[in-house]
Amino acid sequence: MTSYNDALRGYAHSVLKRDAFRCRYCGWDGSQWPNWLYLSWDHLLPKGHPQRDDERYIVCACRFCNECCNRTKFQVDGRAPEEIVEAKRAAINKVRNDYFQFWDSEGPEPPRMSGMFDSSKTRVQPVFKQLERRDPTGASWIEPLCRLGSRASSALPERAPWAGKLSEPPKFEYGCDAPEEFLRWLIEHADQLDRKRLVRGETETHKKRAALLDGCHATRVEALARLDKEGGGKSGPGQWQVFEGTTMVDCALFCEHATLFVEGKRIEPHLTGRVEWYAKRHQVVRNLDCLRVRQRPARRYVLTVVEQGTPLEGEAAQLDSSAPLFSESLPHLNADEVEGLRQHYLGYTTWQRIAETFGDLTLPVTTQEAHALGFAHNTDSSA
Ligand SMILES: [Zn+2]
Fold it and tell me: How far is the CA of 318 from the centre of ligand 1 (A)?
């Protein structure tokens, strides 16, 4: 057959093929290019064991799983290959979980403003700019767009029109400060803030925050007084009492009689990222909360848009039916207020469905393509 004598194409190939090119420990799918490059074979038996080179005791493993427990000794005598795999898998999972904790708190921020597949530049801006070109008033597309939301039938008024025309062009990356009531709640419940975020340093911010999280009463009083005095949630240097900064709304549509915030995702690993000091705060609900305290029209809605066929769709569906995600995100509101606010959530739809509904909208693959089509710009409009 082949004359290769390296692992992937040569001597390990038959084992990889037997295991369908999947890591036996974590399930890493190496059947696609370039994932295949990260496969290896893993000997279940230690060097010197008479059966070490028996292929029944060699499995397909991704590079990480292979190296993960190199120095750990596993009980192999009298065990079937599958039993050894299971024991190793348990050990590997433990390391993976530890790594995940580290990655989650210290790892790179998810790509947002840059990157080839940036959701703002390849989805949010192209879609809304194309819709705006067709009808700058928004009258013909805003309400049908909202109807695509999975919860729209219960959230929206039955009779159209209810939004009216756009009062200004769509705003991208629209900055919204955190509601004061929520900031107040965070100070009053400092024990629930994420201690992992705490930096013990020499600046005033470091010291005050450490004191607050350590339960210092005087610092709490001072923080609340500062919040009263400065009002609202402008975060910035020295604003140590502010534990949730400005959120960037992907697209804000201000109409005569309604305001719509769109949370748009494409390749992000999750619908909600790390939300500053209070980990239970879901990004979508945070948008709703920011919308709640605005002076603008009484009709306010949030719509989530995700890429079809990605795990984000499943997450969005879960958010639809999960009241606890809303109440956990809004600890400063009572049950009626939470439920009231939830009525303003339109649920989710997909970019593909929007493109279909409005006929032939282009969804650029890369930011480069979006720029070439004139759909994407570096925008930053703040409240
Ligand atoms: Zn693996």
Answer: 28
pTM exceeding the 0.90 threshold for the entire prediction: no
Task: Quote the ligand 1 centre to 36 CA distance (angstroms).
Answer: 12
**The predicted structure's pLDDT at residue 197:** 80
**Beta-bridge partner residues of 253:** 260
Q: How far is the CA of 270 from the centre of ligand 1 (A)?
A: 21
pLDDT at residue 1 greater than cutoff 70? no
Cα Dmax for the chain: 79
Q: Which two tokens stand for residue 280?
A: 């239970």
Query: What is the C-alpha separation between 181 and 178, in angstroms, rounded?
Result: 9
Enter the tokens of residue 55. 């292929």
Distance 96 CA to ligand 1 centre (A): 10
The per-residue pLDDT for 383 is 35
3-state secondary structure of 14: helix
Residue 365: strand, helix, or coil: coil
Question: What is the average pLDDT score of the chain?
Answer: 89
| Residue 94 alpha carbon to ligand 1 centre in Å | 13
- Choose from 156-170, 211-225, 260-274 the range with maximum mean pLDDT: 211-225
* Closest C-alpha to 173, from 118, 105, 234: 118
- Tell me the three state secondary structure of residue 376: coil
Distance 66 CA to ligand 1 centre (A): 7
- Chain centroid offset of residue 127 CA: 20
For the chain, domain boundaries: 7-106, 119-177+246-372
* CA 39/CA 12 separation, integer angstroms: 10
**Among 112-121, 165-174, 353-362, which stretch is predicted with the lowest mean pLDDT?**
112-121
Strand residue runs (E) in the chain: 39-43, 58-62, 171-176, 247-254, 258-264, 299-306, 345-350
Cα(43) to centroid(ligand 1), Å? 14
Read off the pLDDT of each residue in 209-221 and give the average, rounded to a whole number.
Answer: 94
What distance in Å separates the CA atoms of residue 210 and residue 226, rounded to the nearest whole number?
Answer: 17
Strands 299-306 and 171-176: unpaired
Q: Are 302 and 347 in contact (CB under 8 A)?
A: no
pLDDT tier for residue 274 given thresholds of 50, 70 and 90:
low
What are the tokens at 185?
């709640």
* Lookup result for tokens 């989530």: 304
